[in-house]
Design a protein that fits this description.
Length: 168
């Protein structure tokens, strides 16, 4: 039982040593420990404050980023609208240019067709004249075999030539 219930001498020395250790700790240990706990507390509080500020800054940056994204989307929409308008204008200009060119080609083709038509008409006229002259020449040859008829025709032609010269 000696182990469970200490003797009075042992109890005295235990209380004395405990008091000395407590005094030394109270004089030298507790102030250091308290100062370290205070520093740690202020460091933790400062870290919490820094974290709060960082969170606020992050929220501000997030809002700024969102605003920039919205602005970028608006600019993108404006650029796409402008590109669409430009493409439509270019297409309209190309269509108008193609119409002008096709109208010019049609007009040129009409002029060329008219010229070829006139040339064909002239060729037909010349052919008809040539055929008529050839037929006339044959008829005249057959009729000019008669000398009296030939002389009377010559006089009539000479008279017409004189009348033409007198008018001029």
């Amino acid at each position: 039982m000696d182990l469970i219930i200490p003797s009075s001498g042992l109890l005295f020395w235990m209380v004395l040593i405990f008091g000395i250790v407590f005094f030394i700790l109270a004089k030298f240990g507790f102030p250091v420990i308290t100062a370290m706990i205070g520093k740690r507390t202020s460091y933790i509080n400062q870290s919490l404050e820094d974290a709060r500020k960082a969170k606020e800054e992050l929220e501000g940056m997030t809002q700024t980023c969102n605003k920039m994204l919205e602005q970028t989307y608006r600019q993108q929409a404006e650029i796409l609208d402008q590109a669409q308008k430009t493409a439509n204008e270019m297409l309209e200009n190309a269509v108008q240019q193609a119409r002008k060119e096709s109208d010019m080609l049609i007009a040129s083709a009409k002029v060329e067709i008219q010229a070829q038509k006139q040339e064909a008409i002239n060729e037909v006229r010349n052919s008809i004249v040539d055929i008529a002259l050839a037929a006339s020449a044959k008829i005249l040859r057959s009729q000019l075999e008669d000398k009296n008829l030939r002389d009377s025709m010559m006089e009539a032609v000479l008279q017409e030539v004189d009348n033409c010269n007198n008018k001029v």
